[in-house]
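User: Here's a structure from my thesis project, written as structure tokens. My advisor, Dr. K., wants to see whether a designed sequence matches the one we expressed. Can you design one independently, without my sequence as a hint?
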């Protein structure tokens, strides 16, 4: 930053500290962040729709044969951008935000603002079967993070403003301000207090107003509720909850299984080629898998399943309702495969909207099966389509309240609150008992970067090992005599613990002052007793790369030790003392709770 600009910023910050309270400034910032996140969401959505509209005529003209090459073209463009401009692998949007909040004090890179705005439209516009919500949230969060850093905002407030950005982006895309707030609380595990509620509310309002300003009263789902909740349908909603619960487990396991297959392909070019061809084949057979899939959902809500399915190789058989049901069930199965293939092949996109598409298809299938069993049963296919979406959202991302309020808000279907609660709760309970972690959180849990509503777990997750490692211990060599050790290390150290290191600085043991106290003043032993005769193994070892702070705390509890050595890259790094760790924990807890 030029000196003159830096001087202006310094003056502004001084003026702000004198004239605007911190609380008021946060509220102002939340409005700005909500607006910018909303603007980002509108931009990514309109850019994608523009690309889709350009390609639509070509798809129709080619009788769907263009589906075979479009995903490969889109993935190639993303690959070229990542290789020559971004220059690092794309990360899952929501997971990377949670990692940033947990381990990087909410700091996101400047290029995280514009990269999702380029890669997501290219991926989705050319047929990638992923959503735009994740990239919009990532870009908005990066705007908030960099704006917070520019105004010298502390890490805790930065976390709140990143959550505000996510609320603003979601409110803008879905025009659902309440669900946006709940998403921020459920997914980013914020404490819902009045201090956090008001900024989230302001950001959400700002985001939705931005959407109205640029898009008018355009809504995602043009649906008006015609049938409310009927008590006699309760059992069917329970059945749908069970179905969406198992579908959520399938969705999550399929996601990790396909990603593991793509990891075996070392070259990004092979991933691109395999993924592009696979997506192209799926799109040709099942056109609704193209892009996000909001058009598919709208057609199902309108009761037009033929339009929802589009032109397929099975058009000659769609007069048979059971063929239609089979095709819709195929979308339920293949949406998860197409989505994960897109991500595994190097595409950019989110998982939230694909869960909605899969849920809508499954809900419609369940309703059609009930209505065509020949038992005289009748349920609303539109209602089941809506509630199926809520069931998948609740199960896949473990966010039942977000699912309930989102579907209720975007459709105006508040009369369906009871069945929404039934289906979402059952789906969530089944999935939560079967899977400890979601697509967002599984990898984060492995490295101890997972945020949690449990304050103890949250604080341990926020702590950094570098903050508690102490390095002022005098090392000794195993070939040192007792006399050398006393003169070169013990006499110069303020600690009562000495790591024994070999020539390569690898830890081979430790010596505690109590071990040598009885012989310290026996000069006859100075040249006859050596360190290798006195050392012993530490009660436990902390591994810098693999142990998180929760595991470190457990090692202290299990070993009963007051100091444990830390190994980094196979070599001795230092010690962590229980007293320093508990002090750091207490400070972090006080800061987090305030």
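Assistant: Designed independently from the structure alone:
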């Amino acid at each position: 930053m030029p000196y003159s600009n830096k001087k202006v910023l310094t003056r502004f910050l001084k003026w702000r500290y004198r004239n605007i309270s911190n609380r008021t400034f946060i509220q102002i910032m939340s409005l700005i962040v909500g607006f910018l996140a909303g603007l980002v969401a509108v931009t990514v959505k309109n850019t994608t729709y523009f690309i889709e509209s350009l390609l639509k005529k070509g798809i129709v003209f080619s009788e769907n044969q263009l589906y075979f090459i479009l995903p490969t073209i889109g993935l190639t463009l993303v690959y070229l951008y990542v290789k020559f401009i971004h220059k690092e692998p794309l990360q899952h949007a929501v997971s990377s935000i949670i990692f940033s909040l947990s381990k990087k004090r909410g700091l996101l890179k400047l290029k995280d603002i514009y990269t999702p705005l380029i890669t997501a439209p290219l991926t989705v516009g050319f047929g990638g079967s992923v959503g735009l919500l994740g990239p919009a949230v990532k870009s908005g969060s990066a705007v908030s993070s960099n704006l917070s850093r520019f105004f010298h905002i502390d890490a805790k407030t930065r976390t709140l403003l990143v959550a505000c950005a996510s609320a603003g982006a979601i409110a803008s895309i879905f025009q659902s301000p309440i669900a946006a707030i709940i998403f921020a609380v459920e997914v980013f595990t914020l404490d819902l207090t009045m201090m956090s509620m008001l900024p989230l509310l302001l950001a959400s309002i700002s985001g939705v107003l931005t959407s109205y300003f640029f898009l008018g009263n355009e809504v995602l789902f043009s649906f008006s509720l015609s049938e409310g909740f009927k008590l006699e349908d309760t059992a069917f909603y329970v059945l749908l909850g069970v179905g969406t619960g198992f579908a959520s487990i399938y969705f999550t396991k399929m996601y990790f299984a396909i990603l593991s297959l793509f990891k075996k392909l070392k070259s990004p070019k092979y991933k691109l080629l395999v993924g592009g061809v696979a997506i192209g084949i799926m799109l040709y057979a099942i056109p609704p898998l193209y892009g996000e899939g909001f058009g598919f959902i709208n057609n199902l809500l309108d009761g037009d399943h033929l339009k929802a399915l589009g032109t397929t190789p099975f058009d000659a058989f769609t007069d048979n309702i059971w063929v239609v049901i089979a095709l819709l069930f195929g979308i339920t199965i293949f949406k998860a495969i197409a989505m994960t293939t897109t991500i595994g092949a190097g595409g950019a996109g989110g998982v939230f909207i694909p869960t909605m598409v899969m849920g809508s298809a499954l809900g419609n299938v369940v309703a059609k099966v009930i209505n065509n069993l020949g038992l005289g049963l009748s349920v609303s296919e539109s209602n089941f389509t809506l509630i199926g979406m809520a069931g998948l959202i609740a199960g896949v991302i473990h966010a039942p309240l977000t699912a309930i309020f989102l579907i209720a808000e975007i459709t105006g279907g508040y009369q369906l609150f009871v069945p929404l609660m039934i289906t979402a709760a059952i789906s969530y309970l089944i999935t939560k008992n079967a899977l400890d972690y979601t697509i967002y959180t599984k990898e984060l849990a492995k490295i101890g970067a997972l945020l949690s509503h449990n304050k103890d777990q949250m604080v341990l997750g926020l702590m950094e090992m570098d903050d508690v490692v102490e390095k002022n211990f005098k090392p000794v060599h195993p070939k040192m005599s007792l006399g050398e050790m006393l003169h070169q290390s013990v006499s110069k150290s303020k600690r009562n613990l000495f790591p024994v290191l070999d020539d390569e600085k690898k830890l081979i043991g430790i010596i505690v002052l109590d071990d040598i106290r009885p012989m310290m003043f026996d000069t006859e032993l100075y040249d006859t007793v050596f360190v290798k005769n006195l050392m012993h193994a530490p009660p436990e070892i902390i591994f810098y790369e693999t142990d998180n702070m929760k595991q470190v705390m457990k090692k202290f509890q299990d070993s009963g030790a007051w100091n444990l050595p830390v190994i980094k890259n196979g070599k001795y790094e230092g010690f962590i003392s229980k007293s320093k760790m508990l002090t750091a924990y207490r400070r972090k807890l006080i800061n987090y709770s305030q």
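When you compare it with your expressed construct, this may help: Strands lie at 469-470, 497-501, 507-512, 542-543, 563-568, 571-577.
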